[in-house]
Structures are given as C-alpha cells and as structure tokens.
Specification:
Blueprint lengths: L5 E5 L5 E6 L12 E13 L10 H15 L2 E5 L5 E5 L4 E6 L2 E6 L3 E4 L6 H20 L4 E11 L2 E8 L5
Helix pairs in contact: 1-2
C-alpha cells in the first residue's frame, strides 16, 4: 500500500537570531558566556486542502520571523535549571547566579525561557511548540499533521524538534 504525503519547507535568510547563552553540562560545569548566529528551518506536513495547499507560506513565515525576533540580541537563560538563580533587582537589572559565577545584566537584555538548558535541541523545541500554538491561535484548525523544526547554532550543526498531531488520520 502506498502513502502520499505533502509538506511545505521554509528556509529563509531572515529566519535567524543572534543571542548569548551558556550550556550547563551534566557534571555541573558550564561553558563561558558566548553567542551564536542561529538559523531556523521549518517543515510543515499535512493533507492538501481543496485549494492544493498544506498551509499558505504567506501565513506561516511572519510567525516564524516573530519568534526569531523575540530571541534576537538577548541573553537566553534556562528558567527551569535547578541551580541557576535569576533575581530581578529594583534598579532595572537582573542578577544571574550559577554556582560561583555571578552576572549583573540590564533586565531588558535577557529572556528567560521555560527550558532546563539552552541547547539547540531545547531552542528548537521551544520555537516549534510556540509555532504550533500560534498557528492554532491564528488560523484555528488546520491540516497540519507534522512539524519538523531545526535550529542551527553553527553551519552543519542542528538541534531538531518533531511534532506530530496524533488526532490526524
């Protein structure tokens, strides 16, 4: 038995963001604070509509761009790491502490995400889940069955998130 599947694939120059982070390793050590120029790649799979579309590119591209823009030029922090402490101060700064390391940063330059680490895999997961949610909010029920979203932190190195709607045929 054969199966047919359809998808749209989006890889645009403006699906990018630059931000700072550090990874915390399983042994408790961490990287130095550093930055990457990240790129996002997305593929949405689903049934064709009666108009011959999975979903219109024009509708999805701005959502991906908004997500990239929300991360751009920020220090990304993992809000769910058990040893990372983030405290807002009254002077408009935030104090970030991990073990013996302490940072003081303007509050509007950080973004705390619901992650346990700021790996490319976790960033792909966050962006992918946000994209699925925003597509649902913006367009209601769609024909989307699967999403594959990748985040590259350097050329040739990707973290990948897969979403599948178990309620589709």
């Amino acid at each position: 038995m054969s199966t047919e599947r359809w998808a749209i694939h989006m890889h645009k120059e403006y699906f990018k963001f630059s931000c700072a982070h550090f990874l915390i390793f399983p042994d408790g050590s961490k990287e130095r604070l550093h930055g990457h120029n990240y790129h996002v790649d997305a593929e949405i799979e689903g049934q064709l509509t009666d108009r011959g579309l999975v979903i219109d590119f024009i509708l999805v591209k701005p959502l991906i761009r908004e997500l990239c823009d929300s991360l751009d030029e920020r220090w990304i922090l993992p809000g769910e790491h058990p040893e990372l402490d983030v405290k807002a101060r009254d002077d408009g700064h935030t104090e970030v502490t991990y073990r013996e390391c302490r940072y003081l940063v303007p509050a509007d330059e950080i973004l705390i995400l619901p992650l346990n680490n700021t790996s490319a895999e976790n960033l792909a997961t966050w962006i992918g889940r946000e994209l699925v949610q925003r597509i649902g909010q913006e367009f209601g029920r769609t024909q989307i069955q699967k999403l594959r979203l990748s985040v590259s932190e350097t050329p040739g190195q990707w973290g990948v998130y897969h979403y599948s709607d178990d309620n589709t045929g």
